[in-house]
Specification:
Layout lengths: L2 H5 L12 H7 L2 H17 L6 H25 L1 H4 L17 H22 L2 H22 L6 H10 L1 H10 L4 H24 L1 H7 L4 H4 L2 H24 L5 H23 L3 H41 L1
């Protein structure tokens, strides 16, 4: 083949084999579901009346913004995803979607989610959503993830912002309550993801990602998981201690925190490989349940408070 032939423009461009399911996968549906749920709690906690149509619009925009972040993340990490067993079946490594297609998809969703939220709801919420997408894609994906073992700690701020965006959608401001929700998710993120990194350390090493177990070692990671879990327990109890929520939430947060602490201690003391793998998998699985039940309890208390005047009046 001549140099001219090699550099010639392809007159038969690749026809995309992508199906709707491939584009749905780009949105990271499991992550999106968590975003929607935590945003719903932030919205429910916010004071004042919010029209149901605007509430649904705001939640959809936050969800689409989260999906856009996922698509842009995958567009930028196709090389990494192809080397990791956990992500090798994503649409880009499988050749179902190109990085360019995923990038265009993510940018389009980002633009419309931010603009729709800003125009139809308010620009404080729109700006916060734009910042969330920027932080996840530029600060975390393009900057932190490939260069520092603290990627999860700092990058966790992006995943912790949806309740703040939702609160701002209702009130047009930011207050202490949504910042407490932000802090809970922020301090939950390191023990959750470092547990994953411990039993997926070979994956991350193969992809060249400087996760804490590969940089500082498993023992240092176990200690960090334990320390962050202790801080998380205190932060999660703060909404009760500060008087924003009642004893039901306070007791629930302490019981769940005790479960997290026991599992974190188990991760810290189990150093033999097979025992360590079991311990980290249990912590990772429980951490998902922990956050769901904690936020479900917050939502339940909000609903009970809203219904109490009606029941009392009856």
């Amino acid at each position: 083949m001549s140099v001219l032939d090699h550099n010639a423009v392809d007159i038969n461009p690749r026809i995309s084999e992508a199906e709707p399911g491939d584009y749905i996968a780009l949105l990271k549906p499991r992550v999106m579901s968590l975003v929607i749920f935590t945003a719903l709690v932030g919205m429910a906690m916010a004071p004042g009346h919010f029209h149901p149509v605007l509430a649904i619009t705001a939640l959809l925009c936050i969800a689409v913004g989260a999906g856009a972040s996922g698509a842009l993340n995958m567009a930028l990490e196709g090389d990494i995803d192809s080397k990791m067993s956990r992500t090798a079946n994503r649409p880009i490594p499988r050749g179902r979607v190109t990085s360019g297609e995923a990038m265009a998809f993510g940018l389009t969703l980002s633009f419309f989610s931010v603009m729709t939220l800003g125009i139809l709801v308010n620009w404080i919420a729109g700006a916060l959503l734009a910042f969330t997408i920027f932080f996840y894609v530029v600060i975390y994906t393009m900057g932190l993830k490939r260069w520092t073992a603290q990627n999860i700690v700092i990058g966790g701020a992006a995943g912790a912002l949806p309740p703040v965006v939702a609160w701002a959608a209702v009130t047009g401001t930011v207050d202490v309550e949504p910042l407490l929700l932000f802090a809970i998710i922020f301090f939950w993120t390191p023990p959750h993801f470092w547990a994953l990194a411990l039993f997926r350390s070979d994956d991350y090493a193969r992809a060249g990602i400087p996760m804490l177990p590969n940089v500082a070692g498993p023992d240092a990671t176990r200690l960090q998981i334990l320390l962050y879990t202790i801080v998380l327990i205190a932060v999660a109890a703060a909404p009760w201690a500060l008087g924003y929520f009642d004893a039901i939430y306070g007791v629930t947060s302490l019981v769940l925190g005790a479960g997290m602490l026991v599992l974190a201690i188990n991760v810290y003391i189990r150093r033999e490989r097979s025992q360590s793998l079991r311990a980290t998998r249990k912590l990772f699985a429980f951490s998902i349940l922990y956050l769901f039940v904690l936020f479900a309890t917050l939502l339940l208390e909000v609903v009970v408070r809203a219904l109490a005047p009606m029941v009392g009046g009856a």
